[in-house]
Every structure is written in C-alpha cells, then in structure tokens.
Design goal:
This protein is mainly α. It has a domain of 70 residues. A three-stranded mixed sheet has the order 1-3-2. The chain binds zinc ion (ZN).
C-alpha cells in the first residue's frame, strides 16, 4: 500500500496550490469624528455668604440621628454625628440644641454651622 504514503503529500500539495483569496480591501477609514464641543467652564462652587444659614433638613436629620426627634442633636455634628455630644458643649442652631463632644468641636460648629451640618447631612 505505497499509495497511502502519498496521500498526505497530495493533500499538502492541494492545499499549497489553492490560490489564496486576494486580500480583502481595507475598509475605508471612518471620517474623523466631529470635534466634541467643549464643555462649558465649570464655575467654582459659589460660597454664598447668604447660604450660611443651616439647612433645616440637615438639622432635622442630625436631630433624628440620635434616635429622638426632640430638637436636641445629641451627637456631635462636627464628628459626623458619630460621637456623643455633651450638654456642656451646647450650641443653639435655629431652634435646635446641638451638643458637641468637645470644646474644639463646639468651636468648629459655631464657626461654620452650615458647613458642619452639611457634612453630617448624608450620614
Ligand atoms: Zn466632636
């Protein structure tokens, strides 16, 4: 059966002799994308002095955070309402009594009540 020995060779030759398909023409390049319009300049967050008043929603949130809606914020706002405040470091804010945990936090709260409460607002 010598013929069998040639079968692979024939197969190889058949493959080699197959004309290769011409390379497909390259797809035309897509036209350049139109320039993206420049984003409007981001205006710096305005620190409006008039907005220094404390957000009532934040006060209510802070009030409820200690488990009792009693107009007493028993957690230290400057510590993100994570620390227990002390009555001796109390600050009155729009009818709420906010207890800070320390003289330092009380000072920070009184210096920027709106900012401090806003920080605690989402906690
Ligand atoms: Zn504190």
């Amino acid at each position: 059966m010598r013929l069998l020995r040639f079968v692979p060779l024939l197969f190889l030759l058949a493959c080699a002799s197959t004309p290769s398909a011409p390379d497909a023409p390259l797809a035309p390049l897509a036209p350049p994308a139109p320039p993206v319009p420049a984003a409007p300049p981001v205006t710096a967050a305005t620190t409006d002095p008039a907005s220094a008043s404390v957000d009532p929603a934040c006060l209510a949130h802070a009030d409820a955070k200690d488990g009792a809606v009693d107009k007493v914020i028993a957690r230290c706002p400057n510590c993100g309402l994570t620390m227990d405040g002390k009555p001796e470091f109390s600050t009155t804010l729009d009818g709420y009594e906010a207890h800070s945990c320390s003289a330092h936090c009380k000072g920070a709260l009184e210096a920027e009540p709106a900012a401090v409460l806003a920080r605690s607002c989402n906690r």
